[in-house]
Description:
Layout: E1 2-8, H1 12-25, E2 31-34, H2 39-45, H3 51-59, E3 62-67, H4 83-92, E4 97-103, H5 116-119, E5 123-129, E6 141-144, E7 154-157, H6 164-179, E8 184-189, H7 195-208, E9 215-220, H8 221-230, E10 237-240, H9 242-255, E11 263-267, E12 273-277, H10 294-306, H11 311-326, E13 329-330, E14 340-341, H12 344-354
Parallel strand pairs: 1-2, 1-3, 3-12, 5-10, 8-9, 8-10, 13-14
Antiparallel strand pairs: 4-5, 4-11, 6-7, 11-12
Helix pairs in contact: 1-10, 1-12, 6-7, 8-9, 10-11, 11-12
Bound molecules: 1,4-dihydronicotinamide adenine dinucleotide, 2-OXO-4-methylpentanoic acid and magnesium ion (MG).
Amino acid sequence: MKIAILPGDGIGPEIVDQAVNVLNALDLKFEMESAPVGGAGYAAHGHPLPEATLKLAQEADAILFGAVGDWKYDTLERSLRPEQAILGLRKNLNLFANLRPAILYPELSGASTLKPEVVSGLDILIIRELTGDIYFGKPRGVRIATDGAFVGEREGYDTMRYAETEIRRIAHVAFQAAQKRDKRLTSVDKANVLETFQFWKDIVTDVHKEYPDVALDHMYVDNAAMQLIRAPKKFDVMVTGNMFGDILSDAAAMLTGSIGMLPSASLDKNNKGLYEPSHGSAPDIAGKGIANPLATILSAAMMLRFSLGLPEQADRIENAVKKVLAQGLRTPDIYEAGTTKVGTVEMGEAVVRALI
Ligand SMILES: NC(=O)C1=CN([C@@H]2O[C@H](COP(=O)(O)OP(=O)(O)OC[C@H]3O[C@@H](n4cnc5c(N)ncnc54)[C@H](O)[C@@H]3O)[C@@H](O)[C@H]2O)C=CC1
Ligand SMILES: CC(C)CC(=O)C(=O)O
Ligand SMILES: [Mg+2]
């Protein structure tokens, strides 16, 4: 089995190193090949998603991805900016289904900024559509306004759009995921304002006819953001578009104690996938050796479960993570008085030691 390793920028290489060590410690003899991506791809080959990197990703059975982005590239023209690498991989590989499980490990109930009783026992799944919406819609750009109150001025514009097929296929993923859990699905939209999301709501409602055993409700995204903080345990599975999912999943991350705890799987229709933490390249802490590698290690576990058909090995990694948390080891983002502060490498090494 071949795994493409794409560390990327900022803390990407630091956290991916730890996940690779954990995978190697399983002793399953994976074939792993690394390639530069994001700012690192631009620096090496003049493009954030070099051809050879895309080819490696296409040929591999699964992809382990760190993060891309670096302030020093923020002034490049958009097509050359690091973020185009992850957007390009998602689009090229048809990774339309992004699964972001927000689980609070009991040991971290005090690490969340919310009261323990609000978050303890939290186990929700956010399903984010990943290859459509305003992130990919065209046209987009900056132009001279030709109508409205600001005619003649420059205006920025993007296009929000969803095709019926795109909504149907993510709705099926969400209903099927709900069937395997508590059979409750919340579809998050902004149907009160946006045509795209009225259409989304109508299609999800139609797909629901095929899943009568799942209870479906609809919620506006602003309310959903509030409810996630007020009473997050009321949710089971949430499904939403690309942009709302991006924002809500970062909010959900804090329910788990830290964005450094939230893994993700981005899947195509055959469960080939790219696995990455939900966070970015964290340039503010890059190179300091303090990034939390657990979201990336847990993403590697998701890779074993969803793409490589090795659920027992995924369990091994997840149990090892539980064990190191029970041992009291904490990177600074999840540190509390009475626990032991460790760095990225020490945390990764502890997970390797905890594998049984
Ligand atoms: N999939 C990807 O590659 C993504 C890339 N980005 C890019 O990352 C760069 C930084 O973006 P930000 O908005 O700052 O988001 P970010 O997620 O990188 O960082 C937000 C905050 O969370 C902290 N943080 C993130 N991951 C952490 C970890 N594992 N351990 C401890 N603390 C952690 C950071 O230090 C920072 O204070 C930008 O260039 C952005 O475009 C952002 C999100 C996803
Ligand atoms: C480049 C961004 C769309 C990445 C991001 O924020 C995410 O996937 O969560
Ligand atoms: Mg994001």
